[in-house]
Amino acid sequence: MAFPTGALPILILKNTVLFPGITQTIRVGRDKSKKAVELAEQSNHWILTLTQKDLNKDIDSTENLNTIGSLSKIEAIKKGADNDYFITIRGYYRAKVIQFDNKEDYFSASVERLNDIIDIDKATEEAFLSSLKTLGNEILKLIPGNTQSLSELINGLEDLSLLGYLAAANIDFTIHDKQKILEEVNLKNRILQLLNLLQELKQSLIVQNDIRNKLNSKLGQTQREHILREQLKAIKEELGEEGSVENDQNYKNKIIEANMPKSAEKMALQELKKLTQISVQSPEYQIIKSHLDLMLELPWQKSSEKKDFSLTEAEEILNQDHYGLDKIKKRILQHLSIMQRKRNKTGSILLLVGPPGVGKTSLAQSIAKALGKKYYRISLGGVRDESEIRGHRRTYIGALPGKIISTLTKVKENDSLILLDEIDKLSRSFAGDPSAALLEVLDPEQNNTFMDHYLDTPFDLSNIFFIATANSLEGIPAPLLDRLEVIELTGYTLAEKFNIAKNHIIPKLIFDNNFSREELQIGDEALLRIITHYTRESGVRELQRKISEICRFSSEKIQRNKKYVFVNLDNLEEIFGPEKYSNDMTEAQALPGVVTGLAWTPVGGDILFIETALVPGKGDLIITGQLGDVMKESAQIAKSLIKSRLLKMAPNLDLNKYDLHLHVPSGSIPKDGPSAGVTILTSLASLVTRTPVDPKLAMTGEISLRGKVLPVGGIKEKVIAAH
């Protein structure tokens, strides 16, 4: 195999020396060494292995590296769960550094090959081989454990240099002695040096075994366990597994300092005990370590530094961040005042319900800011697995804690504010019902002992301020809704949208896009026209997108040497194109049987038209326009009312000879709800009496069989739509 040329990445060894002809599995955890392994893998797999001089110092420069090592080749790479590499590497040539090259994230060096100086005859070589094999086998017999395979390997070798390297690599010498053996280029001197070390080790092992045999009969069980643990620690250090035990005491100290509940602390100590008794290579090692690390990352008793807050300050923050929403702000401040009296205990869980873009998420952020709490958002949209909330059991491959516990490891405080976004978008599947798992999370009577399957010990969630958001209450199961205190956010009025855009959105986007006040200005009339003719929404997200579009348009103009852009009614069409919406949506003339109604949608209010017609038939009711069951029942009630009073309204009309056809335009959109009842009744009355209804008169309300108009919801949204 050809000796490579050019600078080679350096793999820094700490507790071992790699010899030519020897294959080892090494754990690589340091960043510089990991980078070197990655570079070697990307090129020809050649890498230079150098052992550090002082094992107790970190490698900040090449001064702490020996200059003689092995030119090696990486044969296999495996990535561990903690992102460390486990590599199988084989030494090929002994090499000496000519020049180091200190890169920012790894070391490299130019090297030359060091060949053996062979000055021994055949008889001496045979004698050395025999002596090495004899001493090696005698030492292996003194070492506890199964050494049969190593003994067979030694006996089968006839290459003196390779046998020497094999003995040096596998027998318990100090790192310093191993490095001296590697550096010796004279084969005869190297073998003599190795034989002396083997003889010293043999005598030491004989003495140790004698002492051990004598002590074993006298030592009690506790003392024997202590000695065995010390021996295990030493063995693992030599094998490069010292990381699994060297931090045992640190782990124990962290467990005590975490101030866990007694049950959790007991579990953590049991996990630590298991960790010290298994090999790093064991699959169970990473499972236990990950679980223990999770327990140490959780804020069992760590709270935010700010314990008290001012209602006045909270009110100022809410007013600063949000225009309008006065009733909502008042309700939130009342909730915060109760929290203050209860010493920050959150009590009930708030649910902010409203159409998209009305400020639910930003309200939660403002509350966190006012309380001095850390804020974290958990998106629940599309979650359909109970394990997403409660975690997986550790017996499963790839098990992870649930979203709640994972969030706490990020915020590091047990009284933070967590936003459960889109709680109405949860869905159930064969993997369970996540809304059922949330029952425990959001119940103040139960969440002080929340049990995550992965954590497997109770965690107190009672100090966390949970806020949930939803677009509608319809998708929330009744038991979950019962645990929430609903605060409804309705759509913004025209005046509110104007002020939000002028005082919040426009200044923010001008700043974000690096405009000066002189470069971009938007006139009030143009802003009102954008709101009324280019957007139709309850919130302000589409309005924000339109203003962003203005910023892009203005940026292009200014880049083309225009000094400033003033947006007015004249250039709106140039920016956006034709107007998308018109306020003149009602019919131009009144027609019998056509009535304007008001409807509520998840994104705000809207107007609709109820159209009715008489067609020859047998008195049936024909319904079209994708109407739901409730709306169909309203139509049946309206028909029955009309028929019961037909003699007074149209004495000459026989409805048994005609079918009543009821249609609601926009047939591709499903429609349902009781609030169209009065509109349907008015439309039928207008039809049979041939009396037109003013198209600018819009109505909403449920109708009863006695002709009473009953109250309905969504009035604000409907009024905004009518406006």
Outline the structure in words.
By secondary structure, the chain is an alpha/beta fold. It has 5 domains: 106 residues, Roll (Archaeosine Trna-guanine Transglycosylase, Chain: A, domain 4); 95 residues, Methane Monooxygenase Hydroxylase, Chain G, domain 1 (Up-down Bundle); 178 residues, P-loop containing nucleotide triphosphate hydrolases (Rossmann fold), CATH 3.40.50; 83 residues, Helicase, Ruva Protein, domain 3, CATH 1.10.8.60; 129 residues, Ribosomal Protein S5, domain 2, CATH 3.30.230.10. It is built from 25 helices and 22 strands. It has a 5-stranded mixed β-barrel. The chain has a 5-stranded parallel beta sheet with strand order 8-9-12-7-13, with helices on both faces. Strand 4 and strand 5 form a beta hairpin. Helix 2 runs parallel beside helix 6, helix 4 runs parallel beside helix 6 and helix 11 packs antiparallel against helix 13. It is elongated and about 135 Å long. The chain starts with 7 loop residues before the first strand and ends with a helix. The model has no long low-confidence stretch (mean pLDDT 85).
Strand order of the largest sheet: 1-3-4-5-6
Proportion of helical residues:
40-55%
List the uncertain runs: none
Strand-residue fraction? Answer: 15-25%
CA radius of gyration = 40 Å
Name its key features.
alpha/beta, 25 helices, 43% helix, Rossmann fold, 5-stranded mixed β-barrel, 723 residues, Methane Monooxygenase Hydroxylase, Chain G, domain 1, 5-stranded parallel β-sheet, Archaeosine Trna-guanine Transglycosylase, Chain: A, domain 4, 5 domains, 22 strands
